[in-house]
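If I may wish for something, please walk me through the protein I am sending here so I can picture the backbone:
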Amino acid sequence: MSGRIAILAEPRVTHCGDQGLLLEAEGDLALPTQERIWALNDRVLEWPGVLDTQPGMNSLLVLLDPDESDLVESADKLLRAWKECRSATRRGQLLEIGVVYGGEGGLDLPDVARYHGLAIEDVVKLHSDAEYTIFAPGTGPGFGYLFGLNRRLFIPRRNVPVMRKVGGVVSMAGAQAMLGVPRKPSGADVSPTGWHVIGRAPDAPMPFDVARDPMSIVSLGDRIRFRVERIER
């Protein structure tokens, strides 16, 4: 995800191939809008011919069985359902995650501070004072995309990705925040990213495990707070 969310004046539904429909909500990112997305997702999953759904940031992707659904009719139905749908408050569980800011695990913290004209300590305080809500699943099993980043920390995603260590990284891009999935430490455990990595969460729990019941410890609507363990230079 680029970190840049298109702000629409009106909702729209577009075709994604011959089996998918993407509903994009109107307006900026906001919790009531996302709660409507979650409510719509629950409703759409009950429709005949729906194979799968994927809530996104201000959006919902619906995968249809072409033998059971007409794409044009389904698009109209989806748009009508969105306009009729109302948000339902979902007060999920709260997880507190300790973070080591800066240092080798948060190489971009000084750059973020310089971009905003702030001291490193101010960036850490603004980031850790916020409460984040899991808005949508991420690109893989994990904590998902987090909403709640202080507007004073909004920062564009990098145009050219950089190599950063993975494994419980705490990062941001645009109006979004992210907590990466913990991994075993390894000097070669790096990956390209356009996000700004400002710290790591060494003791974050593994959010998804197929051997566990339930497999995921977090759900959409759950909340995360970051606790400052220390700041490294």
The CA atoms of residues 165 and 189 lie 6 Å apart. The first helix runs from residue 31 to 44. Residues 94-232 form a domain with the Cyclophilin fold (CATH 2.40.100.10).
